[in-house]
Amino acid sequence: MADEQKFPESIKVQLPSILDNDFYKFTMQHAVVKLFPKAQARYKFINRGKHVFPPNFAEALQSAVNQMAALKLSMQEKHFLDQNCPYLDPVYLDFLQGYCYNPEEVKIIQQGGDLEVSIEGYWYRTILWEVPLMSLICELFYKETEQNRASDDEIIQNTSKKAEMYRRLGVTVADFGTRRRHSFTVQDLVVKTLTSTGKGFFVGSSNVHLAMKNGIKPIGTHAHEWFMFHAAKFGYKMANSEALENWTNVYRGDLGIALSDTYTTKSFFTQFDKKLAKLFDGVRHDSNDPVEFAKMTIAHYDSLGIDPLSKTIIFSDALNYEKVARITEFCRGKIGFSFGIGTNLTNDVGLKAMNIVVKMTEAKPESQDWTPVIKLSDEKGKYTGDPKEIELAKSILKID
Length: 400
Hints:
Elements: H1 23-35, E1 40-46, H2 57-67, H3 75-84, H4 90-98, E2 106-111, E3 114-122, H5 123-126, H6 130-144, H7 152-169, E4 173-175, H8 184-197, E5 202-205, H9 208-214, H10 224-234, H11 236-251, E6 257-259, H12 265-271, H13 274-279, E7 282-285, H14 290-303, E8 312-315, H15 321-331, E9 336-341, H16 343-346, E10 357-364, E11 371-372, H17 387-397
Parallel strand pairs: 4-5, 4-9, 6-7, 7-8, 8-9
Antiparallel strand pairs: 1-3, 1-10, 2-3, 10-11
Helix pairs in contact: 2-6, 3-4, 7-8, 10-11
């Protein structure tokens, strides 16, 4: 347990709510509770940007993690989920009301400027750690390295300017910026500004607390770990199809956007048959060239005799205005599309954005041993996991 007296009040960071998390964490948790209550998982922090952490950073992060144990779902928050997310079972909402973070599931070690963070426990519990841990790491890093951001007024003006540009472009946009935000304060300002100025194009936020606070829609379905676990349980050849079948068994047509790139989109489309393509409203793009992805997706729907204009692509990979404009120019009139924008909204404050992730590394389905899990992605730089396991998966799936 960290000695909290060592850290000045100015560098303490505390999350405002248990719902200060991405919506897909709760929708996946709901599905895990129903289908895999005895499964276990391990996660690790990956410092893609090679950021050097200041002395005593681990202690400050541990202090913030310890404070998370006090977070509880309020009756008002439970009512919000019940009224706005009818596909979440009452039994799950009761479970979430009784849930609390257990800091003992998180191990934090610092050696010099290197930071190691790992998570282990039952999957239905540990699944909620990833996003708040990443947001805490970002906020504490900027605070402890004493990097001054743009002022609140500048952030509001910058966000309002972006809102006007997206409105003129005629697209719909959601905030997907919790994980690598500069801070809660900045994301709060951005979402509030978009809610007030973005009528007609701003459709919601992945952050459930901010969606509730601003009276907007919480947005999200599932993440890569959903497919990674299914690979551990069913094997790489069956991972995508089993993951999607299980998703539809839980949600019965709701939350119908499928993530395509856990084991490359090319492999995904070999299993995304006519049944699944009709059941799901569309797909999410999260790596590699978005226009090439759109071409591949349109061709796949055409090959199945499905009108691409009846489906939607959610683009969510490192988006800015220029990239959104390029995608819009290609997709308009060919397929439905929308955008989930993260860092460019919630960490555009005059500082270098952090490049970090937390990924599942091993899974232990019921009555099975611990199994390494990997993500291949459409972009080799985003591969995660043991190199030998990556080569095995590529061989099984016939990926170059």
